[in-house]
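Worked problem 6 (solution included).
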Amino acid sequence: MTSSAYLIRPKVHTSFLSPTLLQNLHYTTDIPIPSTKDIPPKHALVRIRAAAINPRDMMVIALDKDTYPVKMADGIAPCAGGAGEIEAVGEGSRWKKGERVVVHPSAWMDGEVPKLEALKAKGGEEVEGTLREFMVLIASALGATVIVTSSSDGKLEIVKKLGATHGINYRTNPSWEEEVLRLTNGKGVDHAIEIGGAQSVEKSVHATKQGGLISLVGILSEDRAVNLVPPVFCWWTGKEVADMWRLVRGVLGVDTAMIGKLLEVFQEHEIHPTIAKEFEWKDAKEAFEYSMGWSGVGKIVVKVGD
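Solution. The predicted structure is:
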């Protein structure tokens, strides 16, 4: 038996911002359905029911190695996360048939994922970033004071309802890092979650306190040359050079234990992420086209299966 899928079969390597990148995405109906009788020990076969589209998917589809230099197998399907239920299990698996699960493709990467205590947000910490909804939901649930930047006052009102404490419009307030410092009484935030990339990372560093953490989790802007050495080690205050070292680290993925802890937080605090728009399976390519111009709050989701 076979099933349908949307696979990446490249014609060109292009920018993830290119309007032509979806020419690399192809619909096919000849994908073999895995046998439920040949599941390896401690493994599970999952029937995916829905998949969420993320900016990283565009980088993968475009084969934009300049922006996302990660080796990938040929003919993979996009989407970095989904949900479904267990179809079958191998001997010794912790899962049971019929259980609902969340799927994350951490197996795309080789090697260990560093387990840093800095991944945790604690009550009293101040978090700044443009990851918007998920950052707001998780950090506010854990007791952090959340400062969000956005290009839209409307979006800022939405994320405040989700738990954000402060919102800054970076279009009307281009020196938003100064506003962050004002809101934190000149100290800066404990943890900045940076998704903008080269166009905003320097400001995130300036908005972070001495000894604070800047997590680079996304790349949504065009490239430009940025020298982070001076702002990471020190900062000119206008009167003197202040010792303001910070930790800047990239976050490419997480491991199973981290996902488990995240789900525990979601369950404990009854967190329900917003679904911005749903697409049927036959309209999946339209969903990717829609996401290319999407800058709102909430996930774009594709229902999987005919």
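Discussion: The CA atoms of residues 197 and 219 lie 4 Å apart.
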